[in-house]
Amino acid sequence: MSLVPDGTPLVLLNAFPVDRSQWDPLLEALPVLPGDIITFDVPGIGDMPLPEEEPSLELIADAAVLAMREVTGRDKAVWVGCSMGGYIAMAVAERHPEAIAAIGLLGTRSAADTDEAREARLALADRVDGSDGHPDPRGAAEGLVGMRDGAREALVAAVAANIARHGGDGIAWGQRAMAARPDRTEVLAALEVPAFVAVGEHDSIAGVDAARTMAEALGVEAEVLDGVGHLSAWEAPSRVAALVADLVDRADAG
């Protein structure tokens, strides 16, 4: 029996402003998959240095496709993105549709920012430029975590510690990249691949309506995950692992 992965690769694209360790609980919950699994940080977060280029989700999408192909030798992958990672997955779908074997979207939205949201992103970017990091990691973490049981405090503390590890320049770069993104609902409508869309019941950042818009474009039903918020794969790894494993199975069967 060959030990070399021979299934469709899985690329996990993380939320902002946390690094790829957000996927650790999911990776522990996933069954053994037949293909490679790739996680990587976005510019200025975790181990990824800032590029010289202007902030751009398209830049990340192009680099992600190139890296996936170089590492796996495969032309396409299953792309699963949470929040900012979903924005990147949709940019991949627009720029490299042939690289999409399947797509999973968690706590994200296909619409562009409203003017108010864009201005808030750019204001935070200006505030943290050249600083040591996020001005309020704990406050940011509180807004990302939706669970309300006894495990909440430990998870909020873990997310806050992760956010606090990243410098202000990286946070500013990411905010500016997200502020510039277009509406990609029609990009999803043009895809003809296996898909899922899931959102936490208490996700106040993306929201159920945004999930249903994306699901309708993809021709699937939105999954609303009860009891959790924006970081659903961190909060409910077993439930998200079931969605991801099923998506990989459908991609391999296609």
Structure description:
- Strands 2-1-3-4-5-6 form a six-stranded parallel beta sheet, sandwiched between helices.
- It is an alpha/beta fold and 254 residues long.
- The protein has eleven helices and six strands.
- The mean pLDDT is 95.
- Helix 9 (208-218) links the parallel strand 5 and strand 6 (222-225).
Broad structural category:
alpha/beta
Tell me roughly what share of residues is in helical segments.
40-55%
CATH top level assignment of the domain at 10-111 and 182-253: Alpha Beta
Rg, Å, rounded: 17 Å
The overall average pLDDT, rounded, is 95
Global morphology = globular
User: Unreliable segments (pLDDT under 50, ≥5 consecutive)?
Assistant: none
CATH superfamily of the domain at 10-111 and 182-253: Alpha/Beta hydrolase fold, catalytic domain
Strand proportion: 5-15%
What is the H/E string? EHEHEHEHHHHHEHEHH
Short key terms for the protein model shown above:
254 residues; Rossmann fold; globular
